[in-house]
Each structure stands twice: as structure tokens, then as C-alpha cells.
Amino acid sequence: MKGLIVLVVLSMLCGFGTSKECTNTPTQLSSHTFRYALLSSENETWKEEMFAHYHLTPTDDSAWANLLPRKILREEDEYSWAMMYKNLKSPLKSSGNFLKEVSLHNVRLDPSSIHWQAQQTNLEYLLMLDVDSLVWSFRKTAGLSTPGTAYGGWEAPNCELRGHFVGHYLSASAQMWASTHNDILEKQMSAVVSALSSCQEKMGSGYLSAFPSELFDRFEAIKPVWAPYYTIHKILAGLLDQYTFADNAQALKMVKWMVDYFYNRVRNVITNFSVERHYQSLNEETGGMNDVLYKLFSITGDPKHLVLAHLFDKPCFLGLLAVQNGSLSRTRTEGEDVGGRLKTYQVSTPIHTSLSVIGAQMRYEITGDPLYKDIGTFFMDIVNSSHSYATGGTSVSEFWSDPKRLASTLQTENEESCTTYNMLKVSRHLFRWTKEMAYADYYERALTNGVLGIQRGTEPGVMIYMLPQHPGSSKGKSYHGWGTLYDTFWCCYGTGIESFSKLGDSIYFEEEGEAPGLYIIQYISSSLDWKSGQIMINQKVDPVVSSDPYLRVTFTFSPNKGSSQASTLNLRIPVWTHLDGATATINSQSLAIPAPGSFLSVNREWSSGDKLSLQLPISLRTEAIQDDRHQYASIQAILYGPYLLAGHTSGDWNLKAGSAGSLSDSITPIPASYNEQLVSFSQDSGNSTFVLTNSNQSITMEEHPKSGTDACLQATFRIVFNDSSSSKVLGINDVIDKSVMLEPFDLPGMLLVQQGKDSSLAVTNSAADDGSSIFHVVLGLDGKDGTVSLESGSQEGCYIYSGVNYKSGQSMKLSCKLGSSDPGFNQGASFIKILDLDENSDDRTEYASVQAILYGPCLLAGRATSDWDIKNVSADSLSEWITPISPAHNDHLVTFSQRSRHCTSFWINSNTGSGNNSPLHSIFMCF
Ligand SMILES: [Zn+2]
């Protein structure tokens, strides 16, 4: 009842009086996760109940009416298609004075960059997708034969959203083709377009979808259906990208025919019912229909395409944004992908209007109507100032919550990743129009912290839906968790494969003028073949590490033959750096650097000997969460330059680390050399392999963990040398006969200690004077190659010991050889030292024949029907046995590289300022 009162008061305040509300379906239905669960449920009563109020209240177009005098549809025209057509079909003139994107065809990421690695992982996934499986439901719908099997998840033959991922695939593969020119991918994506074309031909009406057109009958009749235009938008956008990036003329033809079909459908709704009825049907999510139609119009100039685009601009939502209505900031909003599948809901009312901000932005680019520029700007400002986490991401369980109240939203279902994808598009448009640094800063933040981490390392096709923000939450542990290769295909998979296909985008933007200009807004190792500047630019960025707090970038140049053209480079000086220690040089000559948040402009006739270098200090800083309640002021993010640091601790999330002003007193870099001192110890027992593990500060043997798990961390120790001349542990010889201490990786500053003969081992706070933490590493007592035993430094002849034939959880103790009655003593005291649990290295002689074959830095993968045992190959005559395949077959070779892309970390110490700090937590960034 209270909610009702609030609703009435609000609606009066907002000036809509007693007129119809801008409203829509109950909020729950607008969550894709919920909709999928509902539609795949067997519980008919639940479904009936949930759909009972579907589109109960009609959409209000009074907000739109408030936009006079810009209003395009006069009331008397609303029911007349002919009049409407006449009024809508002529665009205003666009000013067109925007920064231009550079073609993905001309940008190449450098293989040393994490961005290239992410792109490569995605390329591998795209190549794993099968043409027949992708188009299975399209063929079924067209009544064609269906070889192969259909994919699962949201692409399954009974899912109403099926086909959406295929649209994303067409966009992703087109962009990936431009980014890599991978020929196999080109063949695959062309085969998908051809197969879809056959389906469209077979149906004969222009309609093309993986589900029957009956879903649109329901859509137009305002009956429950799951977002059919959302999926149609993906397919249109995908086909258009195939035309734009890969010159596929057939794809453009298909788009035009499809649009003819939907143009007729919308016209029929408006002529047979009313434009209101059409707008009412738009309450069911329609994705970025306006966006793709404006793009199509920019290619075809066909007024029909413009009219249809206008008809997908949603008055209900855009109207509110256009009048910068204060109540927007009281909305709950869900954001999703491409054309701006972002929806808003008022807190106290079940209001839903699907919005197409990105489409509105395209409208501004096409028509120049400044109203649509304001819509995008206002929208971005609201989201950026009141709804964004430190990652640049937004949303809670697919909705937006109260503005500046984010502290109580930190949970596992935060930041739907396709929302971040969308916000990047919005900010990219705004940067191109305004050159305002804030949009470039946002782009870097959201791409770095909200996109790069949604892949699981270098595993192709494993991505997340949500990026949890809850303290102590692993990003893989949310309702959806990690997706699978062929059985999830969530919305975020669609945008995920697009994100990682266009990482070369938005690094460089061009400015036309007397002398060509280039804006460089991201520092990512890459090269640009800058056509209008007639020059090849190479950008090289040193990997950022905690122990060297600078971003170092070097640009080198190769002008085209005969070119003698001056051009201007505008280099972004990010807001997160400071001038103290910043340098910019050109051929060792210093340049003055402007304040952070502006551009360093260098005009020059570039020559091949030129070298432009930037060195920008990176510092640690904290950032308060967007929450204006006093009691949450202490919830802070820790950032290192553009990187948000993630934390690992045994449970205490309350850091008493001093004031933000003295952050560097309490947070110190972990020396880079420590990365080379990490080891694990394993031992076989029965048929299993076990590893020495820190289990809540007692030491046990546990089953060999899967990589990427917490158990992996707990089984990793750092070798702390007593002798300062040693530092690296690259092989067994680096530790044999050395006195060492063992520091659990997950408890920095603590040490493994023995507590006396036949007593269990423990992990304690600091090195005791009695030498109980010192162990002498000796050759394995079992006499086998590659094993080690750990002898107590203070109790000679006593070793870390497990017994034999034990099970998981075996407690470890110190046991002395002399006096031991165990015949298996030597075996139980011998371990295999593993350098890195993720590396699968193995120093057992029986596995000596397991070999990798490398060609330069590239690990070669093998293909065989079943026999993995290659015989008669000796290492020194490798070239006799392995011969190059002719270049025509090179397309079939793939490379795999290291699992982790890049990590660097810090410690957080327990005390501030005093000399004797011991680290309690480690924080890190990893991709
Ligand atoms: Zn999503």
C-alpha cells in the first residue's frame, strides 16, 4: 500500500499528472536469468502466475509528447502511416565533426601483450565453433535438413532466444577477421552467412531467424514471449558487420530483405491498430534495433530504414532521458548488450522501458539532432557517477539499484559483463564527439577491469556472466559460474566473443584536418598502419609490475615511401598519473608534459629514426565506493594506476592500513624475484598423487589440485633462502644442500615450522630463534632421481615425513630416521618438487619421454587419430623426422602459450610506519 502512495506522489512530481505511466512488465521477467529459468521450468502454475501481469499497463508516450517542439509525430498523424512516413523519412543534417575510428584491419596487437593473448584465446574459441551446430535451428525453422547437432544453453532448440549467439558470432568473426586475417575463420564465417542465406531463400518472405515468426505474432499481440527483436537485432548487426568488415555483399542483401519483412510487420501493426500499440509491444526488450537500423540507413540512404529506426527509438525511456528527468536517478536499471539493451525500472513501481541509448547516439551521428547527444551524455553521467563500481561495471542481478547506494549491493551477482560491453560503446561515442578525457579514462578502466578478466586465463570458450564484487568472492563463484564451450551461450557469451575480437579498437582515433591527427587513448602494445598519416606506428608498452611503478611506452615509426607529411600525435596523459617523475622524450630531447587529464600533442614530419618515449608514474590510490551514506565511507577500492587490485586473505577483509595519504607506507611491492621462488612438493601414494598443503595452518597431504583452485594456492610455498646469495629456484640444483624456510603462498610472512620429534608440523607467525623453521634440502632418501627430502635444520636426521599408503588429509610430522621402525621411511620422506602446479613439469625418469616440441618460442600441438607415442625421433636429429608442411597447410597449425597472461602483486603489511612490518595480505592483478 505504501508503494502505491509513493507512486502517485512521484508521478505528480514528475509532471505526468494523471496521464498513463511510462511503465512495463514486472521487473523479474526482465532478467534474462529469470526468464530462462521460468521458460525451462515444468511448473505451469508458476509460469501462468508470472505471466499474468505481462504488459498489464500500457506504455506511456506522454513523456515523448513532452519533447515538443521536437516531437515528430503530431497527434493527428499518429494513426496515419502515410503521414508518419512523410514526416519521418527526411533526416536532419549531421555535423559529422567527430573523431574517426581507425579500421580494425589496420591495427595489429603485439603478441607480447595480454590483449593479444586474450584475442588469441577468443580466436581459438571461434575456430572451435561448428557451422552446422550454429545454424541448426535456422535450418530447422526453414524446413531444411539439419546435419550435425544443435548447441545447448540459450541456443538450444527449445529456447526462445535461440539464434542470438549466431548474430554475435557473425559480428565477432567479422571483427576477428579484420583483426587477424585468419583464413580459416573467414571460410567458417562465410559458410555461416551462406547457410543462413539458404534458410532465408527457403522461407521466401525475407524472414530469417532460428525460431518461427509465430513469436512475433505473440509479440505484436502483447502476449508472453522472450524478446524476439532482441535476437533479430543481433542477426541484423552480425550480417551488417559481415558486410562492413568482410565486404560480404550477400550479407547486406540479406539484411535489406529482412528489414523489408519487419518494416511491413511494424507498418501493419500501426495501420491495423495504432502507433501506441506498436510502442506498447516494444515494452518487451528489442535490443538495439534502432542502432542497427540507423547504421543500415547510413549505408543505404533508404528512407524506409530511417523510418523504421525512428520507430524503434523508445519514447518511454528516451523521453525521460531527454528531459533529464530526475526520477531516472531513482530507477532500477538493467543493462545489457549491443544496441543498448539497457532497461530502467523505478524503484517503487514495476516500470520497465527498454532503452536504446546507443541507438539514440547513432541517431545523433546520422541526423545531428543535439537532443540525442544530450540523451547519451546524461545517461553516461548518471551511470558513471552513481551506479559504477571501481571496475567500471554496473548492475546487480541484471538491474540497476539505487544511485549512490552501492555498498549494500556487493554480492556475487554484480556487474553483468554484457553491460560493461555496452557502456564501452556509449563512452566511445561520447569520446569521439567531445575528445573529453573522462570518457577515455572510463574506457580504459572498464576494459581493463571489467572485460579482460571475464575469460578464464587462456582457456578458449570459458567466460563468466557476472563479475562478483563481494569481499572474498572468487569471480568464478556466482549463480552462473564459469560457462562452458557449447552449453551456455548466455547474452554475455555473445558480447564476450565480440569484446575479445575488437581489442584493437579504441586505441587510436583519427582527426581530419589540414595536418592529419591521431589520438592515442590507450597504451597497448600494437601497431597501426595509419593510412591518412602515411605512416606505420609501433607502440610498445613494458608490462606493468608492482616493483617498478611506471608505465613505459615507446613509439617508433616507419613512414611510407616518399611520404613527407607532417602529422600530429595526441597522447593521453591519464588522470591516474602525476607529473612528478613523468618524462616524455623525442630522440632524447625532452618534451613538456601537460597536466594529467589532457593530451600531449606532438606535431612533426615523422621519420624512421624517430623514437618517442613516455614514462608515466603509477601510484597506489584508494577510491571510495559510490555510496553517500556515512557508515560506508570505509569501503574503498585499491587501485594501481588503471588497475583495480584484487585481494587474497585468509578471511580478514578489514584492512587497518593507515590513511589513504600514506598508502605506500602500508602497501609495499612484492619483489619480482619472489615469483621465481614458488614451489610445491608432491608424493605418490597408492594410485594417487598428493601435495604438501597448508590446511588452516596445519600441514597435510592433499590430492593433487586442479589448476586455478584455492587448493592450488594452499599447496604453493615460497622457498626463503637462509643464504642471501641464492634467489631463484629454476631447477633442483638451486635448492639441494641449501638451508631454507617455507612460506605458505596464501599466508605471506608466516613460516612452516616443526614442533619436535613425532609432532605435527605447523604454520606460525615468525621465524623462531630455535631454528624450528629451518630445513635442509637434501637429495631424496629414496635414492630416486629428482626427489628431495627436507631435513630439520635443528634436529639432524629428522625429516618431514608422511608415512606410506595414506589418504587425503594425512597430517605431516617431523620424524627421525634413526629409531624409525617404518621400512618405508625413505619413501615417506621423499618428495618431488614441482616448480609450478600449473606447469605440469615432471622430473621423474619414467616420464622422460614426455616431450614438448617447440619451434622458436612456439609450442607445437599435435594431431593424431590415437597414437600419441611418436617413435624413432631423437632430439638431436629432430629435423630428419619432422619436416615442414607446405605453406598451403600452415593454416592448420596452432600455438598455445603460457596459461597466465600477466600477474603482479603487492603485500599489505600489518603495521604502518614502524620499521618491522610483516605482511598480512597480498593484493594482485592477474589476467
Ligand atoms: Zn549478459
From TrEMBL:
Q: Which organism is it from?
A: Populus deltoides
What taxonomic ancestry is recorded?
Answer: Eukaryota, Viridiplantae, Streptophyta, Embryophyta, Tracheophyta
On the tree of life, the source organism's domain of life is Eukaryota
All copies of the Non-reducing end beta-L-arabinofuranosidase-like GH127 catalytic domain together span 106-505
Q: What is this protein called?
A: DUF1680 domain-containing protein
Q: Pfam families recorded for this chain?
A: Beta-AFase-like_GH127_cat, Glyco_hydro127M
Biological process according to GO: carbohydrate metabolic process
| PANTHER family cross-referenced by the UniProt entry | PROLINE-TRNA LIGASE (DUF1680) (PTHR31151:SF0)
Q: Does the keyword Signal apply?
A: yes
Secretion signal, residue range per the UniProt entry: 1-19
Which UniProt keywords are listed?
Answer: Signal
Concerning InterPro entries, the annotation shows: 6-hairpin_glycosidase_sf, Beta-AFase-like_GH127_cat, Beta-AFase-like_GH127_middle
Non-reducing end beta-L-arabinofuranosidase-like GH127 middle domain: residues covered: 518-618
